[in-house]
Fold these 4 entries.
Entry 1:
Amino acid sequence: MRKTLAPLALILGILACNYPTTSIGGEPTAEVPLALVDASTPVGAEAPPPTLPPTRDPNLPIYTPTPDVPHGQPTLRSDYIEYVVQPYDILTAIAERFGVTLEEVVAANNIIDPNTLEVGQNLLIPPQSPVSLGPDFKIIPDSELVNGPFALFFDVAAFIDSQPGYLKQHREEVDGAMLSGAQIVQRVATEYSVNPKLLLAVLEVQSGWLSDANPRTSRLQYPMGVLDAWRSGLYFQLSWAADNLNKGYYEWKGGLTAGWRTTEGTLIPAASTINPGTAGVQYMFSLLYPEGEWRNIVSDGGFNALYAQYFGYPFDLAVEPLVPPDIAQPAMQLPFEAGVPWVYSGGPHGGWGNSAWAALDFAPRGEMLGCNQSTDWVVAAADGLIVRAENGAVVEDLDGDGYEQTGWTILYMHMASEGRVQAGTRVSAGDRIGHPSCEGGFATASHLHVARRYNGEWIAASGSTAWGSLPFVMDGWISTSSGILYDGILQRDGVSVEACECRDPDNMLQR
């Protein structure tokens, strides 16, 4: 079987589903500034919004965050290893996965055309050649990278309107609708579950859109400085930033990476005591700068100084742990009606983009090859409140407080607009909430993409991965992963159903 690299649009189609206890440091004496508080009533909720705990008195000295305990990050390799090419593999992704350059892999294997790979082909992966250790300075707490509890109190539109820069006048068409700069920032933050304050700070570093009313022309089309025609415009540029912030965060948290490679090809081992939030920022900036500039940005007095200038000291708002170690998943059922078989079409993969492998895919009968809206119903997997229903997404809040940044939430993706449940609706497990389709993100066939979050953090779907031991469980079916994207098994009472893009009865489930 021969595999040829596809154009970006087709690659995005294959990866369809990836797109579309509080501890506060310092002395608790001062309330959060009112400018950061959004006291609006949550969707469909009867309770008032939660109250922020007090933060450090600004007259007290800023404390130094405690270094994280190293938790299993791999060491850099000094030997050659072998890798067997899997379906959907591309050479650039393989090189990145193993911390080497594309050129190094090509040279080690005498590859003539890097745009073609053969499934089953053996590749020799060269050793990694690092330089000195990266900074151990902690830039941001995990809860300020994730679109979590404290993001509730930040009014994106009001903040942007208070700044003199270009962002407040920017308008751009996204999915056929004209959106303001604030709407785009909020949409990206919501989709990727990345804190909007972090996105704004990164945008300011890269383009000055908060402070400069007339940014240079090159930054109008590519405000993040990612010169890629497929990613022109604020929405796609911010989506790139959010996706790579997530990639660095979740791969570090999962112990899947040992460092970063900067733009000139320098491999920098990451300090083992940084936290995942800092890792996310370090990784994203490594894609934009050579080593010297990168070290300046991610060290004390770099990016963190700009962030503090706009939003205050980030560790004052640390929610630790963001996901308690003893947390348990609420009871959930399979998200389809009794007696209706569905195909288990995709094992663990990104909840949105390069986040933790938080999602599973299910496809309705007989419609694997097309994007026609299915007549089969998706149903709620648990009792809860629908807090968002737009752009192909339905989000259910399981604690019912009306916020998707707190507690358990479920994302149902690629939900057709016709027949879709409305935000503000309270549902019980088994209630109809819509039909699977290709709406939202990129999809090559009608299906349902379902993922979990807790306090805004994507929760890996498989307990057998490095991301944790909280497998996705529905009707007693337990999700496991082979370690290969989209490849997984659901198991219950000794019965196994393997994920497959096929119509084989052995790959179907029903309640």
Entry 2:
Amino acid sequence: MEAYCVKCKAKREMAEANEVSMKGKGGVERRAMKGKCPNCNTTMFRILPNKKD
């Protein structure tokens, strides 16, 4: 999954990407992807859209 690296200031393909859940407004759960930048090893984060039922 592609995400923006703040340290490199570029979009890169996330390494070791895992789907996580986080708190959203109104107590709802939001989906997100969390991984590492392959260049600088900084943590990358991307919020995903809601699942469609």
Entry 3:
Amino acid sequence: MSQDPFREIFETASVRRQLHDGEVLYTRGEPSALCFLVESGQLESSLPNQQARRYPRLIGVGEIVGAVDMVLDRPYSRQVEARDASVVLLLPRDVLLGQLHKAGPLMLGVMQSLARNIDKLARGGCT
């Protein structure tokens, strides 16, 4: 068995997507139908406006993007694009939520609580 159960789930239920430097993976407001595990390269998450990207965050190999929005059942809250040539593994919403439901209502509740706290931290505070 793999030492990283997340990677194992991604590899068995996912497909790979190659991204070119600057290619947008998803934009703010799109339905959160997939989450992504960075297999190689680097992504940047930001809040775009007309003049520039605000509050950029770099996402490296082994990190997952899009899962918080999926767990909170909302559209993507940020824009994510490749910072260099990258490969991501795509995990569909139904697979992620199916794994959480399979783990039981406690695990789903814990994940939703963690997602809300991550979201609060990203917006400047956590209680």
Entry 4:
Amino acid sequence: MRRVTRNLLVAIALVAVALLALGALPSYLGGGDPYYLTAEQVETDASAIDVNNVSERRYPFLTSALASDDGRSDPYLADSYGIKEWFTHTPFDEVDALTRQLPEAAADGGVRVRYEGAVYRVEVVRP
């Protein structure tokens, strides 16, 4: 094998390992404050997004908030530098995605959703 070819293959391997590390590293970052997605039941006739059939894989924070007894999702630990948000799924992503589906359902920094006949106000909070 020629030296140039070998060096190219080594460079490609190093780039592949670096990209894999960047994909795994953000899940280990988490020294910052915890954020929670909360779901609080509200009485309103305003428009709300039907989330009865949402996927747990696409909306893990929303489904855990709706399934919990206290209406709070599993914590999302942000990192100190903001790098983790670029590579991982956040509760902010879920609220943004829901707001884009039905902009009329946006409510005071959160969004209204309809789940099993009840309307909930879902927002990201930091205790």
